[in-house]
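Reviewer has doubts. Consider these tokens.
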Amino acid sequence: MTFTETPGAGSAFGGWNDECAARGFNTSCMLTANQNRFVSAAFFKPVTLLVTRTGSGGGTITSSPAGITCGADCSQPYAFNTVVTLTAAAAAGSVFGGFTGCDSLVGNFSCRLTMTANRTVFASFTPPTAALGVSTSGNGNVSGPGIDCGGGGSDCLQGFPTGAAVVLTAALDLVSFAGSGVYTGIDGDCTFLDNDTTVMDHACTVTRASMPPRDRHDPGSVTRLTRS
């Protein structure tokens, strides 16, 4: 006696059970009808894969087998137990940040998962970044978003999205006593939008010129960075 599986429309065969369990996902099972026998088979409806893009960058996710091209089409039903490979392609001016929710990664831009249930995969895209470095001399501190450099601060390097305008602020050292306390300006290989703002169009370094120790009678002040 031979049993053959035939899924209905939109369903997938999920394997043999009971006395045909050893046949697994094979399409047929043969038994000898010499006694009462018990056979069952499982069938599954399709399961859905949803891809969600995250981050402020742009890009496209495609699938194999076909069905997903996200941006435009980000979900697809697949037969139970289908192995799906997703591949990312970043848009111009963006960087692919990685997949979350896959079973395994395949290289730097692809991942693989087996569809045994409804699944959601996240793919992140971010704008490219440029590193801003601050170098100080003399006494005082330079601060800005993610920057706290000099005067006890040691965070002198920070990444920013390309094109971002970054404002830096200089503060005199309040515990130095001798000298004029005059801030003499900034320099470096950054692109300056104005006296205290640099535009992150490339990785660059802001060099703070010498800030001599301030006079002990000077009550102190906070001054915007000003280029010489």
Observations:
- The chain is about 0% helix and 50% strand.
- Residues 174-185, 208-228 have pLDDT under 50 and may be disordered.
